[in-house]
Amino acid sequence: MTGLAAAAALLRHNFADPGLLAEALTHRSAAGAKGVGSNERLEFIGDRVLGLVVAEWLLERFPDEREGEIGKRLAALVSKPSLAAVAESLGLAALISASAGEAKRGVRERATVLADALEAMIGALYLDGGLAPSRDFVRRALGSAVAAQAAPPQDAKSALQEWALQRGLDLPSYEVVEATGPAHAPHFTIRVTVGTHAASGHAGSKRAAEQAAALQLLEALPS
Known about the structure:
By secondary structure, the chain is mainly alpha-helical. It is 56% helix and 10% strand. It has 11 helices and 3 strands; from the N terminus they run ααααααααααβββα. A hairpin with a 2-residue loop joins strand 2 and strand 3. Helix 3 packs across helix 4, helix 3 crosses helix 8 and helix 7 (111-129) runs antiparallel to helix 8. The radius of gyration is 18 Å and the shape is globular.
């Protein structure tokens, strides 16, 4: 089975325009090969579709929760680490097209690349088939993650601040390491430091990148 066929099988969708799926699986290092562009534009729209579908799902699943609690659930579910874990479970790394050099350096296994490819696939699915198949795929792919949220997760930045205060450390410091991409689809890399500990996060906004960085650091810190 080819990479495109395997991806279509994961999505359970027959593409009228297979070029969309090919683009969704193309890392920027391989853009232009065989006339296929990178997946950055599809990742942009896929991110919005994913947010809508998950927000709709959470309101349906937790009818008595307040907006703030729903927002915490949403932020955790659509974070880069969460999406990368989903992409990894789907075997997406093997389907991503990257340049020979980048592939050798393991770019297809990077969390941000996996998460972006997953969002790009959702964007391609939406553009080719509409909201219904996109909703079906998201609910299948994120079903375990949603079911695992017994309670609304604590905001990652707040949790990291609490961890620092409990140990008498200075408050977490956030720094923009890199800002790339066009104005309509920016991409930020934020580094957070607490004491001697540090981690980085990536997202399409500074706020989301800070949350991603805080979450990454929390997962690495001693309890």
